[in-house]
Model the fold of this input.
Amino acid sequence: MQPHGNSASPSLRADQTQFYDTGVLPGAPVSWRLPYVIPGPDYYPARVIRFEDVSVTYRGGVQALRGLDLTIEDGEFVVIVGLSGAGKSTLLRALNGLVPATDGSITVGGVEVVGASAAELRALRAQIGMIFQTFNLVNRTSVLNNVLMGRLGSVPAWRSTIGLWPADDRERAMQALERVGIVEKAYVRAANLSGGQQQRVGIARALVQEPSVMLADEPVASLDPVTSRQVMGDLRRINRDLGITTIVNLHYLDLAREFGSRLIGLRDGELVFDGNIADVDDDTFMEIYGRAIGDDDLVGTGDDPT
Ligand SMILES: Nc1ncnc2c1ncn2[C@@H]1O[C@H](COP(=O)(O)OP(=O)(O)OP(=O)(O)O)[C@@H](O)[C@H]1O
Ligand SMILES: [Mg+2]
Done:
């Protein structure tokens, strides 16, 4: 059968329109048996990410990104550092279309984000997992339900509203929890987890989307040093195991050094460093920050007596 149904993005190539999982609601009266179609993982493969001469000016005139040129290859693990206000969050938001670039071009897998239609942005975001500093969980529901919310982009809304998650989605959610080591917490309310466990739920929720890109905006800023390292370790392992392109905004330079491979430095909305973490020394960080590096820029080990 020919792929059909979702013509969300006219700019997709023919080989990007594969679908899996068509079917009907089991047990429904015949008259209800509307077919549904869920886009498969190859539907919108986000391969190379390319920023070309991208500027973002917010209303009010703040220029948060200035003429950014950047290419991120499929499967890379990239850490972005820069002072508060340097434009790190804006870069991630522009990439998933939450903030419109005022100039230039951003492509994900060859598909243009700047000026994309609402349907195109939906298709794009289905392929991009987001991880937040404050976790953004629904505290009063179970860990499993929180993770299943990552499937919302792929499951018709009415199914999730009535709690009818397909069995293979539940299976995927349990696998994602296993990958971050908290499968035994599946039926615990999210509110009852530690911060590090909550962030792992956030990662699992992003994983069940089966994204090709993960964006993490300061994912460990609310965590202690030990937990921060565990969560960064999870992100890096997932990147290596699953080949998901991962971009992490980090505040702490020691973590950037420990976990990064490619480092991007932003200063005042401009790209001021792009290179291998192995080539980064304190002088590099001073150049990116425009000042000396202090204790506040390091997460530390967590076992200082002070
Ligand atoms: N919605 C907005 N409206 C207006 N200006 C904004 C908005 N969001 C961010 N800015 C401004 O754009 C600039 C870049 O902000 P951005 O949040 O991208 O920086 P950041 O590097 O993520 O900083 P932080 O480390 O504090 O999170 C800052 O000057 C900020 O004040
Ligand atoms: Mg930010």
In short: The longest helix spans residues 225-242. The radius of gyration is 20 Å.
